[in-house]
Amino acid sequence: MNTFRYIIKSLWHYRRRNLTVALGMAIGMAVITGALVTGDSVRQGLVRLVKIRLGNVDISVSAGDRYLTDSLAIRVSGDLGTPASAVLQLEGSVTAGGGTKRIPKVKVFGVDKSFRTVLGTASFVPPENEGEAVISDNLATRLDVAAGDEILIRINKPGPVPIDAPFVSNEDNIITVRVTIKEIAGKDLHGRFHLQNTQTAPFNVFISKKQLQKMAELDGLSNLILLDGQGKVDALLAEKSVNRNLSLADAGLNLARHPASGEWLLRTPRVFFDAATLAATEGVPSNKTKWFSYFVNEIRTGDRSTPYSFVSSLPGSQLEPGAILINRWMADDLTARPGDSVTLSYFMVGPLRKLTVEQARFRISGIIPMEDLRCDRLLMPEIPGLSDAGNCRDWETSIPVDLTRIRDKDEEYWNRFRGTPKAFINSDAAAGLWKNRFGNYTQIRFDSSALFKEIETGILSHLRASDIGFQFREPAREGEAAASTGVDFSGLFLGLSFFLIAGGIILTLLLIRLGLEGRKTQIGTLRSLGWPEKIIRRAFLLENILVAAMGSIMGLALTFIYSIVIFKALNGVWNDIVLTDTLRPVFKPATLAAGFGISMMVSAGTAWLALQRFFNRKTVELLQKNTPAGTPTGKGMTTGLTTTVLTTTVLTVATGIGAIFMVIIGLANFQSVGPTHFFIAGTLLLISLLLLSVRLIRYPGHNPARTLTLSILTRNNLLRNSGRSLSVILLFSIGIFMVIAVGANRKNAGHEGIRASGHGEGSGGFAFYMETTVPVADNLNDARVRAGYGLETKSEFVQMKKLDGDDASCLNLNRVSNPPLLGVPAGALEGRFTFASLLDDAGRDHPWRILETEMAGGVIPAIADQTVIQWGLGRKIGDTLKYTAENGDTLRLVLMGGLANSIFQGNILISETHFIRHWTSVSGTTVMQVASDPENNEAVQTEILRVFRDYGTDLKPATVKLAEFNSIENTYLSIFLVMGALAMLLGTFGLAIVLARNLQERRSEIALLRATGFGRGKILKLVLSEYASLLFFGTLAGGIPALVTVMPGLLNPVRDVSAGFLLTILLILIVNGLAWILILGRTMIWKKEIIHSLRNE
Hints:
This protein has 33 helices and 31 strands. β27 and β28 form a beta hairpin. α14 (489-496) crosses α15 (498-518), α15 (498-518) packs antiparallel against α23 and α21 (675-698) packs antiparallel against α31 (1016-1045).
């Protein structure tokens, strides 16, 4: 018989045993390949989502808080030869069911037919008639509405002027419209269109662009251009095209002739000229003059005063810095003469519209008649609510106006002269007094001899779209890159399934060794017959490799089942970690081949390891029928094993003492050490107990018994097959350790909420986390403002500006580079939250003050949640992020600190000062943290929801906000828990195999016991004591270290360790193990044929 025939015959003869080994290998194959398939499928699913949400849109041009003309999209489309669509994108909230169902943070798109063209689908039919809307399917589900139903939309009404600008009123800043649902757009109709890199579906409403423009008073204006680049246009080409086709109107500029003087007047609906636009006007060769007009509260001389007047600057050096010109009306009102001193009182507007009254003194240098060209009503800036008011009493401004001070003569002046300046001061003096972050001038005049085209070309040739806040992106490319570099689900599931894979390998190793032990006399016989050792080893290795191949093929079939189950869970009970229902398993041949190869290598390596240890035994030992594997013979116990025994003993004691020492330190410093400290201590104790089990079972020493008792007989039987016994203990102990250690770290929302109520915990001591669709411009801690809003309960607000970006929290599977920015007011978070890390211990005592630091090179210090830094961004403390400022400059943000688990996860925090400096036009605050006394929380919540019901408010208890992030962690832990439990089931399966094999080998022993008078019950008791002791020791070896690991939770009365849940799992697994022992033991012992085994002796 040649080697090949021997292998084939052996495979068939031992087919049942080989099938069992192959099944063990198949489990490992299915888990490994299933993890690779999961990673492929999630990546491909995220890439597919990019197409679902964007269609053919691959270039976007955002105007930020500005508005561009619809015609710009037409010009750019013709220039580039690609489809383009101008879209008006606003934010709002939607109400249905008579106000019972309200969804904030809804994207409202004003679209026309061109939108369908750039999407590349004929199925999406944009609403054309007023009063109609198309909504996304997820919004319809949340609102429980269908086509034909009505919904109420509240939209943040935009304005050309940032609401933080001086004197701008935020009254009437909400548009309310009732529409009928024309159609519900699913993902196939691009109803989930959005530009952010996230798999979470947005809530979208699409209405007629003309209707939205009309309601927002933005006729012919949009704020977003979408392009289908058709593979030939990138963001750079789009930017060049926009710059070539930019008009004054697109830049927010209005150029017109003065009706009296013929001069060209350049004004902006934003009131103040920004620095970039101001610099661009220098490119006009014509003579120009710059004017700055400001609204002052009072002009006083002596005991006489004039209320509420515009004061303007005079260009150049017409006036000395301390001089003032007044018009004749003002002179008569104050009975003032040249040389008199006057005092101007005016408001300066700070963050959150904090008003400070400032004063400046001037000397009257002259009086000009009302007919003077300088007394020009067109010098009044176009401030909505002020310049367009019919009379003084109709003024709507952000500053308090005392109507009792307005006299009849003031009304008469307004009716005749409107906002004609009553006084003029030096231009530099005006800039010094009234300079603000929005600009220094309100009007520029060019010489009447200049041509319109000359002025327009001079300005636009020096003005880039990016200088005024236009942003050019490639959302499709960015989305695909973010998806491909996002969460690695292959590595994730390999990690989560580590103990299940390890259990499969240990079980496979056990099965192979059991198979070899059953054939040890065969191997000894082959040696005795003269077969070369090399040939025997090769034959058995090839045989096991063929079994491994069979197991891997079986594993491929299991992979399909395993993957389908995993994706059912990801789209169901584990949906928290993906937040999308569109993921489907994808089976790539290359991935399946890679999994097959890895499985073959692991299985073959396992077989080789088992064979190496087995073939090292002597021939005479193999031929001895009753010498089990692993039983030391000859001089082994006194020579070669001595060093191993000593090493094992030393390691057992060292790891055990180390674990006890760490526990003592942890208990003594309980408040300062983290859970990781106790996890390390538990792991050391687990290693110590496993080494102890090796020492006691594999190297027990010589302890002759004078009498044979049940316990001694149990001990001897366990020692006889030490390898098998250790395998069972190893499987059980590790499985139980992971089940308890992982399961106990699940976070309970209610208990976590109590723990997080302190200032140093995840909530920072805040009761609520609040976001609004409509910005809140006022200081909600100011008594006057609170009275105006109707806030009566005791509460405190920390208000933050927000720059939108891609969510970087654990809720997003994509890898992002520019998370949202939050501007933190100075001192607002002092003493709140816990820092997980700081750069070089910077600001250890007062870490929040780092944000106010002015760093070299204009670098901005930033803080983020440690989870965001490590996982969302793939960065570390000290790394730099790049952002684009409003003026187009590239900014560098350095990560100076990482917060422990906090409500700010997903955002980057910088100081409000830096935020305002670089993103001037981001007005109002949309993110707030609310502090209140626990007994007032319910009243505060009710009041906030009532007061801000039209603001699109999303108000959550801070603990609920934390729970949203904790749910992700809990889901990962649940997966780990399930895999650990499956590993323990493998342990019980291994126990059953060991038990069945041992009982099969011990048939003669059992028969002899029966023949000498031992009853079946006593023999069953012996078997139960043997294997229950393995089960017990495995549970003990894993359970005690696990309890050390969860000690922080056990000693913290407000932390939930899910004890009942864990005990239930442990009880099920232990009962399952005992059931196997009892059933198999009873079946074997009660067999009548067992007595015939004596005949084989």
